[in-house]
Amino acid sequence: EVQLLESGGGSVQPGGSLRLSCVASGFMFSRHGMNWVRQAPGKGLEWVAGISVSGTTFYVDSVKGRFTISRDNSKNTLYLEINSLRAEDTAKFFCAKDDGYIQFGNWGQGTLVTVSS
Amino acid sequence: QSVLTQPPSVSAAPGQKVTISCSGSSSNIGNNYVTWYQQLPGTAPKLLIYDNDKRPSGIPDRFSGSKSGTSATLGISGLQAGDEADYYCGTWDSSLLIGMFGGGTRLTVL
Fold first, then answer.
1. Contact A113, A12 (CB under 8 A)
2. N or C: which end of chain B has fewer CB within 10 A?
3. Whole-angstrom Cα distance, residue B82 to residue B28?
């Protein structure tokens, strides 16, 4: 059974940093692209970043230069380093396994990031 | 504001059919597969449709998808109370090299 377990969220002040993790199990992690999707309270889904099998990374414009997606295949873990946090970054962050472009058959339960002074 | 445009809400009576549209452009829907997700309150999204019109195992055939040009449509027939949820379309944009979702459509079963 595929499982994705996010962690690392929390409450931080504007300008702060966090590192989110997503531990994967139940599938060959190294053979799948992975993504981060966020959802602000009461709002819709927003694709944030993706990383391919080869390590190529993609970001939505609003997070370029502030967020870094990475993966450690030896640990079956996906990361999202988030810096220079802003109030508008407050959201639940989901990791999602890629089975095709934006074909996310498996999601984690999400980890909440709250940016507030 | 999302690049993919969905109606904010749709509604229909139990047993009826409803369609949800998703409009994009040639760089996204026009040249890539479309996916559809259902999100029940407080839960992670669930994949309903992939590759425009394919259903993952376990998704009933009441759910259908189609694509024409730069638009896609999700159809839900035989509406049930349990179908009340938010629905999102998604695709890749080949010019911007980013993923994207529509703004979401809330389905109300009257």
1. yes
2. N
3. 31
Examine the pLDDT at B1 and tell me if it is beyond 70.
no
Which burial class, exposed, middle or buried, applies to A27 when counting CB atoms under 10 A from its CB (0-12, 13-18, 19+)?
middle
In Å, how far is B25's CA from the nearest CA of chain A?
A: 16
State how far the Cα of A38 lies from the Cα of A41, in Å rounded to an integer.
10
In which residue ranges of chain A is pLDDT below 70? Answer: none
CB contact under 8 A, A44 and B88: yes
Question: pLDDT tens-digit profile of A34-64?
Answer: 999 999 999 999 999 999 999 999 999 999 9
Return the pLDDT at A14: 96
Residue B2 predicted with pLDDT over 80: no
Name the DSSP letter for residue B5: B
Classify burial at A28, counting beta carbons within 10 Å of its beta carbon; exposed 0-12, middle 13-18, buried 19 or more.
exposed
Please tell me which of the candidates A46, A100, A109 has its beta carbon nearest to residue B101: A46
Q: Give the bridge partners for A37, in sequence order.
A: A47, A94
pLDDT of residue B82: 95
Using a CB–CB cutoff of 8 Å, tell me whether B104 touches chain A.
yes
Which is it for strands B46-49 and B35-39: parallel, antiparallel or unpaired? antiparallel
Beta-bridge partners for B5: B23
d(CA A110, CA B8): 24
